[in-house]
Design a protein that fits this description.
By secondary structure, this protein is α+β, with helices and mostly antiparallel strands. The chain has 3 domains: 173 residues, FAD/NAD(P)-binding domain; 147 residues, Polyamine Oxidase, Chain A, domain 2; 87 residues, no CATH class. Strands 7-6-15-16-17-14-18-19 form an 8-stranded mixed beta sheet, sandwiched between helices. The longest helix has 23 residues. The protein is globular. It starts with a strand and ends with a helix.
């Protein structure tokens, strides 16, 4: 039976980094706030799990860089150790049956830069001018190779050197050599957890632009786990979050908002939805503009991702002069990196498999899936990789509450403005989350910043109302 209705100033739906950061900001302003979480644990896509005898495994978010100051401030509050990721040695790129040094090809940051330049809005004079200036700059730069000159000729005769459709089309129209095109395709498949043909090019360009740093996104991690960030956010809350309590319906009334969860009914002045858009679609909204809202939420689909940690007796790859980083053209979307800590724990490789291959591998049994990964890693690192001391994986495919991992992206032929429209949704319902941040889209840093920004807007709106 449903318990009696309770009232708070703000009800926050979602106990991930965005929701908890928002709740802390709201309480700091002197308002009452309650966080409701559908799962049996807090953190959302931040999940730190113990590995018996092997420390911890971050099933979801794990790494940050030095510009992510909101996360790093919480790290300082919790006295967490911030460990740099190993970077020495050669990185690899596997294409067809060949293993190449990765530095023979375009680096990831250059691929992102080229992609941003490639995707153009032809209905915008400012965008067209930008494109012309970039092409003039390219043509006035001396070519370094015959291959580059050949690609320049293709640029000259291309009718539409930019695309208004899918990210896959944009990659093809970058006119890279076959090896670099496959590299870009695989790297982006892993980053977004989806085949580039399924991704909206303009929305993806906006996502790429929402990375407010020129630093690598994998500079540091935390040997005791990213879950300490969640602990830091929860520690300041006056009301403990309610777990295992999914919200079913949000109804707008003249005197506020009525929210019905699996356990209680709530009366709130304002509701902040801080869950991924695919999860928000599971809530029935009876509010003004609900049809538009359904369209915006429907623009997003969750990615598919499998993350695997492999612990070894020794970092044998370093003995070969390798960094432990490898990008595979096939299977598409497979990226590996050295995620060892700077302590006495076992050396560790982390493998990320994103996109359609992740969906296929998720159907395998755990032993079959892990052996398939080991066989692929053997191509890069040799037979020693076949004997990990421990192996743990996290399958983010069709996740009940997030949809998948790591983030939800806007798909082809859907509303490319959905991120901004949701972030600016008017009225008594607001939205926050990693997918809506304008500074560090898709990262825990972005989730925290989005939650705080949405909370501040609610507080400011309330202050204006009562002045």
């Amino acid at each position: 039976m449903m318990k009696s209705e309770q009232h708070v100033n703000v009800l926050v739906v979602g106990g991930g980094a965005a929701g908890l950061a928002a709740a802390a900001t709201i309480e700091e302003a002197g308002l009452s706030c309650q966080v409701i979480e559908a799962q049996s644990h807090l953190g959302g896509r931040v999940q730190t799990c113990a590995v018996p005898g092997r420390g911890v495994f971050d099933r979801g978010a794990q790494m940050v860089n030095g510009d992510m100051q909101a996360v790093l401030e919480l790290v300082r509050q919790q006295n967490m150790h911030c460990a740099p990721l190993p970077k020495t040695g050669r990185s690899l790129y596997l294409f067809d049956d060949h293993v190449y040094p990765a530095d023979e090809f375009l680096p990831p940051d250059k691929i992102y830069d080229l992609l941003e330049e490639q995707i153009l809005r032809w209905d915008s004079p400012k965008e067209i001018l930008r494109s012309l200036l970039l092409r003039f700059q390219w043509w006035t730069t001396p070519w370094e190779s015959v291959g580059e000159a050949g690609r320049g000729l293709k640029h000259l005769i291309a009718t539409h050197p930019a695309t208004a459709g899918s990210l896959g089309s944009a990659i093809r129209q970058m006119l890279l050599c076959p090896e670099e095109e496959a590299l870009a395709y695989s790297m982006l498949t892993e980053a977004f957890g989806a085949a580039p043909e399924m991704l909206n090019a303009h929305a993806t360009r906006e996502i790429i632009s929402r990375y407010a740093s020129r630093r690598d996104d994998m500079e540091f991690h935390f040997p005791e786990g990213m879950g300490g960030i969640i602990d830091a956010l929860v520690s300041t809350l006056e009301r403990p979050p309610l777990l295992s309590n999914p919200v079913l319906k949000v109804v707008e009334a003249e005197d506020g908002m009525n929210v019905h969860s699996a356990q209680k009914s709530w009366k709130a002045d304002h509701v902040l939805i801080a869950v991924p858009p695919p999860a928000a679609r599971q809530i029935l909204f009876e509010i003004e503009g609900q049809d538009d809202l359904f369209e915006l939420l429907g623009a997003f689909e969750a990615g598919d991702m499998i993350k695997t940690a492999l612990d070894y007796e020794t970092a044998f790859w370093r003995l070969k002069g390798l960094s432990g980083t490898a990008i595979f053209a096939d299977p598409t979307g497979l990226v590996v990196t050295d995620a060892s800590a700077d302590d006495s724990s076992d050396p560790r490789l982390i493998a990320f498999l994103g996109g359609p291959e992740a969906r296929l591998w998720a159907k395998l049994s755990e032993p079959e899936r892990q052996q398939r990964l080991l066989d692929q890693l053997s191509r890069a690192f040799g037979p020693a990789v076949q004997n990990p001391k421990a192996i743990s994986d996290a399958v983010w495919v069709d996740h009940r509450w997030s949809g998948g991992g790591y983030n939800a992206t806007i798909r082809i032929n859907r509303n490319a403005q959905a991120m901004d429209r949701l972030a600016d949704w008017p009225g008594r319902v607001s939205f926050a989350g990693a997918e809506l941040d304008t500074t560090f889209w898709g990262y825990v840093e972005g989730a925290i910043l989005s939650g705080r920004s949405a909370a501040k807007a609610i507080v400011d709106q309330r202050i204006c109302k009562y002045q």
